[in-house]
What we know:
Layout: H1 7-20, H2 33-40, H3 44-56, E1 60-63, E2 67-70, H4 88-112, H5 115-130, H6 135-151, H7 156-168, H8 170-180, H9 183-197, H10 201-225
Antiparallel strand pairs: 1-2
Amino acid sequence: MVGTKNVTSRVVSYMKKNIREGIWPVGSKIPSEHKLCRELGVSRISVRSALQQFIALNVLQSQHGKGTFVLSDNLEVFGYGLSPDKNFSDMKQMLEFRLLIEPEVCSIVAQQITPETLEKLTFLLEKMKAEIGHGESFVHSDMDFHQEICNVMNNTVLKTVMSDILKQKSERHVQLNNAVGYYGGIYYHTLLLDALQKHDGKRARSIMREHLQKGIEDLEIDNENLSTPDI
């Protein structure tokens, strides 16, 4: 049975374990959504959310009418989890600070963003997709994406503070990416860009908040997993 805290992350952990241990070898068809729900005692929403991560990172492939198959057993794209020497508290506080600032910034920026900035964000998102598996360069593009949004505000204090958090603290963001992987960045940035393109401030705020909260939750789960084995 999967625990109640961040159920999707627990399902992801279960699926990674099956691939890593060869229970689901490359080329094999994995159990259906219905069977996974029954085995783990979770909702179909949680299973589908987990499957989306594996499909987005080209570890699994869904074939209409046939099922879902294992494309790769390389799980590095999901991150390595926290190692005991990493500063969990520092990384968590960094995300908590960003959670106080960036959702509101996105809400305001959505109302005044220009086609030029949207073009830059589109370029950076495509760059991130191309850099999956290359942690440092992926994180730099990720940070550039967030900085570009903050720059729209044309507020010197905001630019300086966020530049310090996003650039000078880049080592922490690399550690964070190594811990939780690439999916969150691609998934939430895609949704955020769509909201900005539609000038939907309310949705942009909600997506950014969920993005950062998910990062905090993933960190907490990885921190627990230092002493707790996979399900």
